[in-house]
Amino acid sequence: PSRRRHLLCPTNSPAVLSEFLLICFPGFQSWQHWLSLPLSLLFLLAMAANATLLITIRLEASLHEPMYYLLSLLSLLDIVLCLTVIPKVLTIFWFDLRAISFSACFLQMFVMNSFLTMESCTFMVMAYDRYVAICHPLRYPSIITNHFVAKAAIFVIARNALFSLPVPILSAQLHYCAGNIIKNCICTNLSVSTLSCDDITFNRLYQLVAGWTLLGSDLILIIFSYTFILRAVLRIKAEGAAAKALSTCGSHFILILFFSTILLVLIITNVARKRIPPDVPILLNILHHLIPPAMNPIVYGVRTKEIKQGIQRLLRRLLDV
Q: What is the number of domains present in the chain?
């Protein structure tokens, strides 16, 4: 009886919750332990790859350039996103620790919303960096400076944090009278707000408008940047110059395409959730916070000669110690 009073409350009085319960994959809880193995490996890969990239850029003087500082910002965002989501998911799978405090849930919601859009905005700044490097190479050193990177980082953090902050605030102000069981592995706005007995139309509308405004504007600017880049590359007549320019942007474009594709699939599955098993969007949501962080440093490390050489020198130093 005491547990039922904790989960449900009379409809004529608001609930005062101290925690939520995260129920991952409601229909397939028997194979959660098996799923934890690939998730753990991907998590370790993401953390190790991003940490290696950050250390390499920090220690290699030849990598102290604006382009690599932007890549460091991307790695920091990836690390925070991974640490915000995956450890909690793994503790649910391994130890059945499903409880998450009221404040921790909304903090997770804020970090996920803000850092996801920060990553998109960082891709946009990196696309502008490549645009200037290829379309205006002589002006590149005077435009893309350390001061520019500092201002870009402040813009990335401030814009997306301010626009994302109302999402958890609006959710936290709702009255939760439909229990505290979240049918998800993480505290997404939709999963949490549906537990409320209040009207959540404005809550959903704000997240929809803010999300599409931030992510949509970034994607449009990225497309414009690469359109100008492609047009400039096709005009290059020096032998091998076009291939080199495309190779320089290739890794960046692959990651943006991968990031956008996963996000698009996630949106489609949420829109069509009545025709798709509920576990599918839950799994995609987890993977979206895990696969891009694991892929970003690997793709850059493999396709960028300077980073690859820096990592090799770093490994030689460690082996010589």
A: 1
What integer pLDDT is reported at residue 7 of this predicted model?
44
Confidence at residue 104, expressed as pLDDT on a 0 to 100 scale? 94
Please give the Cα distance from 309 to 145 (Å, whole number): 23
Asked if the structure places residue 13 within a domain, the reply is no
Do the beta carbons of residue 266 and residue 306 sit within 8 Å?
Answer: no
Pairwise CA distance, residues 182 & 106, whole Å:
13
- Where do the H-state alpha helices sit in 96-240? 102-135, 140-143, 146-164, 166-172, 189-193, 201-235
| Contact indicator for 85, 186 with CB cutoff of 8 Å | yes
Distance between CA atoms of 168 and 122, rounded to whole angstroms?
A: 23
Q: Let me know: does 219 contact 260? Beta carbons within 8 Å.
A: yes
The half-sphere exposure of 78 on its side-chain side, counting CA atoms within 13 A, is 34
Residue 270: which domain range? 20-320
In-domain check, residue 5: no
The overall pTM is greater than 0.85 = yes
Name, in order, each residue with C-beta under 8 angstroms of 94's C-beta and a sequence gap of 6 or more: 33, 36
**What is the greatest pairwise CA distance in the chain?**
79
- Going by the DSSP 8-state scheme, the letter that residue 114 receives in this structure is H
CB 293 within 8 A of CB 78: yes
pLDDT below 50 — which residues of the chain?
1-15
Q: Tell me if 110 sits within 8 A of 168, measured CB to CB.
A: yes
Q: Does the residue 14 lie in any domain?
A: no
| Nearest to 7, CA basis, from 191, 190, 195, 194 | 195
Q: List Cβ neighbours of 305 (8 Å cut-off, separation of 6 or more).
A: none
CB 66 within 8 A of CB 146: yes
Residue at 6 is within a domain:
no
Q: What is the CATH classification number for the domain harbouring 278?
A: 1.20.1070.10
Collapsing DSSP to helix, strand or coil, 101 comes out as strand
